[in-house]
Design brief:
With 255 residues, the protein is α+β, with helices and mostly antiparallel strands. It is built from 5 helices and 12 strands. The strands form 2 sheets. Strands 1, 2, 5, 6, 7, 8, 9, 10, 11 and 12 form a 10-stranded mixed β-sheet that branches. A two-stranded antiparallel sheet has the order 3-4. Helix 3 packs across helix 5. The structure holds N-((E,2S,3R)-1,3-dihydroxyoctadec-4-EN-2-yl)hexanamide (6CM). The site of N-((E,2S,3R)-1,3-dihydroxyoctadec-4-EN-2-yl)hexanamide has 24 residues, from strand 7, strand 8, strand 11, strand 12 and helix 5.
Amino acid sequence: EKKKKEPTPLKPPQHISLSPSHPMYNEINEITTSHLRRLLSANKAEEQEWQCIVDQGDLKVFKRELEENGIVIDPMKAVCTVKKITGHEVCHYFWDFENRLEWEATLESTRIVEWLSDDTFINNNVIKRVWPASQRDACFWSHIRHIPAENDEGSDNWIVVNYSTDHPSCPSGKYVRITMNVAMICQTIIEPPSNGGDITRDNITCKITYTADVNPGGWAPSSVLRSVYKREYPKFVRRFTQYVLDKTADKPILF
Ligand code: 6CM
């Protein structure tokens, strides 16, 4: 008899500074864990559901075509391999909202709504208007977490999740409110120098998996939205990873 595949076990997080008594702790924990589980247990059949729309070798972008009441909600996925940076560095700069305008071309402005803990805050993004649709904004929690390797052979992972929420200090109304479930998951691969010397940036590779489920809220023309996605997601990954390379080149490696 064929055994049913058990979900990948995941130890309870060792590093989460949001207090378990916080009202949002369970949601943040569950969403973050589900992203990790989904990535670690992805199988061939699920992989085939993704349609590759950009293949630049080291960077591939996929989508699954999906519509809800005539609105495009295509889940997007990008997989990218970058040398010389660690997953910790990639996640650090993705989570660090202060520099976001430097690499996020679709963003008009961003502000912190509330800090929940030193690894989680609530954020309000105003997105640039795309003609002929109305301007959009988003309110979401942003959480960063380290999932250390369980043993010497295991992989060391970092994750950032951006997930839509409501907040009294961030009412909707001025713009069309988009909702999102976004995750950036990074795995660092280190190939130590064969001469036993120190590990340098040349020995480091980061494997990035970025997923974005975005609901544009109200009406938006499907063809415009799909062409914006096809253009903007690869642009974002290129621009953002180059930003991390530039920021870290002269800095000690953040493992
Ligand atoms: O993940 C990214 N950025 C994060 C930090 O800000 C955050 C934001 C995600 C928002 C993604 C939504 C982009 C949609 C843009 C078009 C919407 C206009 C609708 C009208 C169309 C006719 O998770 C990087 C996001 C990179 C986006 C390309």
